[in-house]
Amino acid sequence: MTGIWLKHQKISEALAKEIRSGGRRAGEQLPGEKALAQRFSVSRTTVRAALAELSEAGLIVTRSGKGSYVLFDGRPLDTPLGWAHALATQGISSRVRTIAVEEVNDDALAERLGVDSPVFVRVARIRELTDDGCVVSYERSFLPPVPGVRELPRQGPAEMSLTEVMRLAGLHPDHGEQRLGGRRIDAREAELLRREPGDWFLDAQRTSFASDGFFVEHVVSLLDPDHFQMSLEFQGGG
């Protein structure tokens, strides 16, 4: 396991260096898994782990379908794949810091999601812009305690690729819904976001399910309204 981890880390670091140095321009397509596996003399599984790490860091993105979207500093973001992907689509580099991983009981959330067990694994993270360190979001992901996920609280808040953890655990988002509101942040949230208690933040909630309807992830994100705003497109009347 250690050898695989080191290989995938070396690949992600090499590609990240190419991207950050300007060797790969924004919007440029990376070589395919097969080509990267040949270049680094590793398996495609190791390449996928490296790409997941880059995706989690917001350095690469896979475009998804259109719909309602969020704007970041006036630029449209497609959000079905999450904020890291959405920001990276516009060439905005961000990094994620995991601050807590714990098992929680939430009867209200279980009832809302229609799942039998109120037990979830909650991963709390903050997202910062790479350029100036500005914290633009505080995110809490609620995951089902399936094998590969239920062990996370014992490992602690080490840096992890949540995308890769979910993939290895067989949690593959297929569809879901996203809601956006707003509220004032409390003292604890203000400390994490480096703001003042009572400041107004956007409150985004995204729930994902697998193709068979199995619950995959529920994410609650507090978004800095100085950067994010919601935009809806419509046509005609009736």
> Unreliable stretches, pLDDT < 50, 5 or more residues?
1-5, 62-73
How large is the radius of gyration?
Answer: 18 Å
Globally, the shape reads: globular
Mean pLDDT: 78
CATH class of the largest domain: Alpha Beta
CATH architecture of the largest domain: 3-Layer(aba) Sandwich
User: Helix fraction?
Assistant: 25-40%
Run of helices and strands: HHHEEHEHEEHHEHEEE
Protein topology:
Blueprint lengths: L1 H19 L12 H8 L3 H13 L12 E4 L2 E3 L5 H7 L4 E12 L1 H7 L5 E11 L5 E9 L8 H4 L6 H7 L6 E10 L2 H7 L6 E10 L5 E9 L4 E4 L7
Antiparallel strand pairs: 1-2, 1-9, 3-4, 4-5, 5-8, 6-7, 7-8
Characterization of this structure:
The protein contains 8 helices and 9 strands. It has 238 residues and is α+β, with helices and mostly antiparallel strands. It has 2 domains: 60 residues, Arc Repressor Mutant, subunit A (Orthogonal Bundle), CATH 1.10.10; 166 residues, Chorismate lyase, CATH 3.40.1410.10. The protein is globular. It starts with a helix and ends in a 7-residue tail after the last strand. The N terminus is likely disordered.
